[in-house]
Amino acid sequence: MELSPEAVKLLLEWFRKNKRVLPWREKREFYRVWVSEIMLQQTRVEAVKEYYLRFMERFPTVGALALAEEDEVLKAWEGLGYYSRARNLLKSAKQIAKEGVPVTYEGVRALSGVGDYTAGAISSIALGLPCPAVDGNVLRVLTRCFADGSNIDEPATKTKFTEVLRRAYPQETGDFCEALMELGAIVCVPNGAPWCGVCPWSGLCRAHLTGEEERYPVRNDKKARKIVNATVCVLERGGKYALEKREDKGLLANLWQFPFFEKVVDIHSFGEVVATKKAKHIFTHIEWNMTGYLIEAREFFGGYEWVSAEEIMNSYALPSAFKAFTEWVK
Ligand code: ADE
Hints:
The protein is 42% helix and 15% strand. The protein is of the alpha+beta class. Helix 1 (5-18) packs across helix 11 (173-186), helix 2 crosses helix 3 (45-58) and helix 8 (116-126) crosses helix 11. The structure holds adenine.
């Protein structure tokens, strides 16, 4: 299985004409590319843009980031999700500040929070190295293009197409890497109908030429998410709100939240309920069905930090899972 030089050329030409203007595409400098690739892990481009610009303003260099406190970095990350990314970024920034920027794929791959895909992307885009970056989007493009029935969920499929790309890599490593991602993001889109009419590969894509776009990619049946019913209590007293820190392991580790219960709680023991609201938040493998209560607390209950609305907005990283309830805080 080979991707021909002609296919590579068509893709690069298409990318140069059609690529989106994105803040991290302005300069291919290691720090900028690294931060963007970490933010873009499991997060949509549209959601990342604004965070990226703010983060770059707040921490313009790896040296500036290395000097930051973890809470500051988490605050800048608030709402982006998958917070271990922020912690790993800080940890790696300290390492880079001491040891210098990595110059090989292995060096990049050794940074905390950088897996095969991200290491390939950073190496191709920032370091000019011919290192494939194969995520779900790129794999979808390739499994459609070759339409050989490979199951996109099988690790062997990823290995096979990684090697196809490695053999096809042109001089313009960054453009090639980003062009594949771009094709997956704006043309060869998931869920049914790709935009084959504007695809540079429509003349060579087997799924398109056989009229079977809908059959690809072949994949396993999806597992259902675990549903967790939870109660969220927004306790207010004298303009202060109760917050607690989540445990240091698992989902949203170490982040702040309103008193949160996965078991039955006696709401009325906290005080008078003044508003209620339901909200749902979907994580990768878990779904939270939350019932929230805004409560005028009868006392400053122990075990919580009681903080003002302003402090919540400025200093405490509250995950966006709680957004519906943060709206109560004024
Ligand atoms: N997704 C992951 N990396 C990306 C990049 N560099 N540009 C656009 N989307 C991406």
